[in-house]
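Example 4.3 (complexes with small molecules)
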Amino acid sequence: MQAGLILMRRDLWVLALMPIGVVAVTIACGLPVAAQQATTAPNEPTTDVGQLFASTCGYCHSDGGRTAGKGPKLMDSPRSDDFLRDRIKLGKEGAMPAFGEAFSEAQIDAILKYIRSLKPN
Ligand code: HEC
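Answer. The structure with heme C bound is encoded below.
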């Protein structure tokens, strides 16, 4: 009789704890979803020059253009705007691809502005 009573109490404990477990699992699964939704803010600009630079130019111009990689460092360039614009448009044989076809004048202007505004990290 005594043993049966203890068993029943144990079962009750498990039953009492089950809802807490369900809530904990729900919270654990829900958090990453909430975090993902937070990063895709509706007002984010679709064409961010920094991102464009990182994906298109970053392979050769390291750290967003701040340091030399396969290509030279672009931050604090002593070159003229025209020189930089032409290099982006025309590229350089065997060194850098030309982007005059890929980007509009406005996009190249935006990239130039981006390069001129680079600051050390
Ligand atoms: C495949 C590698 C590569 C990629 C990709 C690349 N570059 Fe270059 N870039 C170079 C190299 C190498 C040079 C140096 C060319 C030379 O010898 O004058 C250079 C030079 C430049 C210069 C002139 C800097 C200077 O002082 O001579 C600018 C501006 C520039 N790149 C911008 C860009 C931009 C903007 C992009 C992306 C749209 C880009 N590059 C993508 C390799 C690359």
